[in-house]
Design goal:
The chain has two domains: 245 residues, TIM Barrel (Alpha-Beta Barrel), CATH 3.20.20.410; 106 residues, no CATH class. The chain is 37% helix and 18% strand. It contains 16 helices and twelve strands. The strands form two sheets. A seven-stranded parallel sheet has the order 1-2-3-4-5-6-7. Strands 8-9-10-11-12 form a five-stranded mixed sheet. Strand 1, helix 2 and strand 2 form a beta-alpha-beta unit. About 3% of the residues have low confidence.
C-alpha cells in the first residue's frame, strides 16, 4: 500500500503514531520502502497529548524522548518533515502549560500544533508559537475559523471537511477549494515548505480533492494526472452509488460493531455468528499473542510482530484485501469485547504494516 501511495504522492501524514508507539522495524520500513525525497509527517502519541495532557509531572519528557528515538530512521534519512501536536478538543487556552511543553521539544525536528478549541485563536497565541518555531496548523472544519497564521519556517494545512457525523465524510467541490489556492501560494512564498493533507478519506474523497488542489497550483506530474483521470472516469462511469461503497469506506466510529463491519462484510459476519461456540478453542491469550483452533483450522494474532496467521481455504483471498474470513471474525466475536475492539482499532489504523499470512504448521 505504501509503495502504491508513493507512486502518486510525495508526502503522507502518519495517523497510527497517535494511537501507539510504532515498532523500530515499522519505522525502518517507512524509511526503506519510500523513495528518496519522500517526506513524512507524524502525529505525536495521544499518550502525551490526550492521556497525560502535556503535564510534565506525568513523565511526558521521557515519553517524548522515546518517540523521537523511534523516529530516528526517518530523521537521519531526512524523511521526517514534521511532528504534529494535535491537542484534545477540551484543551482550552493554557499558554503556560503549552510553553512548558514547547521548552522540552528537541531542536532537530520541526513541530506543528493543531488547536481544537477556539479560545486559542487570539493575538497572544502567535508570538508564543513563533518563539519556539512551532507551526500553526491551518484547519478547515466546522468549529474553528480557517485562518492562516505563519509562525515557523513551514506551513501546515489540514482540510478536515464540513460534513456531519463525522466532518470528514465530505467531498469538497472545486469552488470550495479554489479560494485556498492564493493562501497556499502566499504561504509558499514566505516559508521553506508547505505541507497540506486532506482528512476527508471517506469514499476516496481525500485523494480526489488533493489532486484537484495540486492541479490548481499547477503542480501535477504525469503520474498524478493519470491518477486524477482514473478517479474522474470512475466517478463518471461507475454504476454504483456512494452508499454501496460503504463497506470499503472507513468505519463510522471506533466501536466494536463499526470496526468488525469494516473488516467483515455483512453476509460473512452472519456466517461467523452462526459458528457454534464450542468449535472455537482459545489455547493462548497472553503477552499480546492470541492462539486458537477452530475445527481443523489454526489462528494466531500477534500484536508484537503485527501479523495474523490462518489456514482456511478462503484466507488467501480475503487476506489480500486486508479483510477477515468468518473463522477469524468468530475469534474476534468470542474474545473479551474491549480487547477485541482495541485489536481491531490497531488493525484499522496500522493497516499498511500488518501482515495477513498463511499459518504453516510446524
Amino acid at each position: 500500500m505504501l509503495r502504491a501511495y508513493c507512486r502518486v504522492f510525495r508526502s503522507v501524514e502518519i495517523d497510527s503514531t497517535f494511537y501507539r508507539y510504532p515498532s523500530k522495524g515499522t519505522v525502518m520500513g517507512w524509511a526503506r520502502y519510500s523513495p528518496e525525497g519522500f517526506v513524512y509527517a507524524a502525529k505525536l502519541p495521544g499518550l502525551i497529548t490526550h492521556e497525560k495532557k502535556l503535564q510534565l509531572s506525568q513523565g511526558i519528557e521521557q515519553d517524548l524522548n522515546k518517540f523521537i528515538e523511534l523516529m530516528e530512521p526517518l530523521i537521519l534519512g531526512g524523511k521526517l518533515g514534521c511532528i504534529l501536536i494535535q491537542l484534545p478538543p477540551k484543551f482550552n487556552y493554557r499558554p503556560k502549560e503549552l510553553e512548558d511543553f514547547f521548552k522540552i521539544l528537541p531542536s532537530n525536528v520541526r513541530f506543528a500544533v493543531e488547536f481544537r478549541e477556539s479560545s486559542w485563536i487570539r493575538d497572544e497565541t502567535w508570538p508564543l508559537l513563533e518563539k519556539y518555531k512551532v507551526a500553526y496548523t491551518v484547519v478547515d472544519e466546522p468549529l474553528l475559523p480557517p485562518e492562516v497564521h505563519l509562525t515557523s519556517d513551514i506551513a501546515y494545512f489540514r482540510w478536515h471537511g464540513k460534513g456531519m457525523r463525522p466532518w470528514y465524510n465530505y467531498r469538497y467541490s472545486p469552488e470550495e477549494l479554489q479560494p485556498w489556492i492564493p493562501q497556499v501560494e502566499d504561504a509558499g512564498s514566505k516559508v521553506e515548505r508547505v505541507y497540506g493533507f486532506f482528512n476527508n478519506h471517506y469514499h476516496g474523497y481525500a485523494v480526489e480533492n488533493c489532486l484537484q488542489v495540486m492541479e490548481m497550483l499547477g503542480a501535477l506530474d504525469a503520474k498524478q494526472v493519470e491518477a486524477k483521470t482514473r478517479i474522474e472516469n470512475y466517478r463518471k462511469n461507475s454504476s454504483q452509488t456512494f452508499s454501496t461503497l460503504e463497506s470499503f469506506a472507513a468505519p463510522k466510529d471506533e466501536s466494536f460493531q463499526s470496526l468488525i463491519s469494516y473488516f467483515v462484510p455483512p453476509e460473512r459476519l452472519k456466517r461467523a455468528e452462526q459458528i457454534p461456540d464450542e468449535e472455537l478453542q482459545i489455547t493462548k491469550q497472553l503477552n499480546g499473542r492470541i492462539e486458537a483452533t477452530l475445527r481443523e483450522y489454526h489462528i494466531v494474532i500477534d500484536l508484537q510482530t503485527q501479523v495474523i496467521l490462518h489456514d482456511c481455504a478462503d484466507w488467501a483471498t480475503v487476506s489480500s484485501t486486508k479483510k477477515l474470513c468468518k473463522h477469524v471474525a468468530k475469534l474476534f466475536l468470542s474474545i473479551e469485547r474491549k480487547s477485541a475492539t482495541e485489536i481491531l482499532r490497531r488493525l484499522y489504523h496500522e493497516e499498511g504494516v500488518w501482515q495477513f499470512k498463511p499459518f504453516l504448521n510446524g
